[in-house]
Design a protein that fits this description.
BirA Bifunctional Protein, domain 2; seven-stranded mixed beta sheet; binds adenosine-5'-[phenylalaninyl-phosphate]
Length: 344
């Protein structure tokens, strides 16, 4: 009996000494296993109870329970203390972490061609006095079609194969032209905006077509806007993008329901003067559509067509990049192939 009491006191005092000396989480874990583990010193005292009388059990049972519970509590307190100290140490060493440090031989990332081209186009248009506008990729049928003079059941809807969404009257925009309407409804003329972004078409893919690609939209609305201003602007931005002063632009009649007259815009092949495989030996490459904004579209944008006129153009940015960097397959541009992408 007396011996059990001495044993309890011995275990209690050696636990406290061990706890005090546990200055790391590893050392504390050793102390836990030694004293509080399943085969630890406290657990080993429990079987001694069974040889005691009922009265003795009543006296020593609670003593052992108190020893166990107070030791566990002391253990958890010490654990919290040590954990907090470790966090503080880690925070202190994070403070000294030099994010600008250069590790020789490390691979540096670069901006994707789309990002580079977007920044270049935005710079060009801002320098011409345009503002940059934006529009949603999930668009209403109204902005994508009706407001652009493409009524429901009109054959022109089939010109662009559409991803329809389960949400009623919503589509993935098939072109950046809905930004024209959104701009006209929020800004008063005179206005000049450029907008770059992703568009989606339900199309089979090949070397020059993908179901997702990027377009560049331009819109200018003012009094007495003319086709020569439109062609001058297109020649200027294409010349600046391709860094060529002698770049030529050609307009052919084309049909887009939201412009009248509508034009298909070709550019002289940036790679040859006599014809090559890129331009199919024609010396011209097709870049996009353009025209004078249809009066009905101006009306849908809340602008009086008797007072104002406008021009608009829409180019495939993907195609512009492919020509500039001589990329022969659109799928390379859209892949995550770092060997290909790191060339630019
Ligand atoms: C349009 O999308 C009109 N919104 C352009 C426009 C704007 C006309 C303003 C008039 C006024 P189109 O469907 O032709 O037009 O597409 C324009 C350009 O996008 C094409 O010339 C081509 O460069 C590019 N393009 C079209 N489909 C794909 C595709 N599947 N993959 C990659 N580029 C494409």
């Amino acid at each position: 009996m007396k011996q059990l009491k001495l044993e309890i006191e011995r275990v209690q005092s050696s636990f406290q000494t061990a706890l005090m000396q546990s200055n790391s989480l590893e050392a504390l874990e050793m102390t836990r296993v030694t004293f509080l583990g399943r085969k630890g010193e406290i657990a080993q005292l429990m079987p001694l109870l069974k040889d005691l009388s009922q009265d003795e059990k009543r006296e020593f049972g609670p003593l052992l329970n108190v020893l166990k519970e107070s030791s566990e509590r002391a253990y958890f307190d010490k654990q919290t203390l040590l954990q907090n100290l470790e966090y503080e140490k880690a925070e202190e060493s994070d403070k000294n972490f030099d994010v600008t440090a250069y590790k020789p031989g490390s691979v540096k990332g670069s901006l994707h061609l789309y990002t580079q081209a977007t920044q270049r186009f935005e710079d060009i248009f801002i320098s011409l006095g345009y503002t940059i506008a934006d529009g949603p990729e999930v668009e209403t049928e109204f902005y994508n079609f009706e407001a652009l003079n493409i009524p429901e059941n009109h054959p022109a809807r089939d010109m662009q194969d559409t991803f329809f969404l389960k949400l009623p009257y919503m589509v993935l925009r098939t072109h950046t032209s809905p930004v024209q309407i959104r701009t006209m409804l929020t800004q008063k003329p005179p206005l000049a905006i450029a907008s770059l972004g992703r568009v989606f078409r339900y199309e089979a893919t090949d070397a020059s077509h993908d179901f997702m690609f990027r377009q560049l939209e331009g819109l200018v609305v003012d009094k007495n806007i003319s086709i020569s201003q439109l062609l001058g602007t297109i020649r200027l931005f294409l010349g600046q993008f391709f860094e060529k002063d002698d770049l030529q632009v050609r307009a052919r009649p084309g049909y887009f329901p939201f412009v009248e007259p509508g034009l298909e815009i070709d550019m002289s092949c940036p790679f040859c003067t006599k014809g090559c495989s890129t331009c199919s030996h024609t010396r011209w490459v097709e870049m996009g559509g353009a025209g004078l904004v249809h009066p009905r579209v101006l009306e849908h944008g809340g602008i009086d067509p008797k007072e104002y006129s406008g021009f608009a153009f829409g180019f495939g940015v993907t195609r512009l990049i492919m020509f500039k960097y001589r990329i022969h397959d659109i799928r390379l541009l859209h892949s995550a192939d770092s060997e290909f992408l790191k060339q630019f």
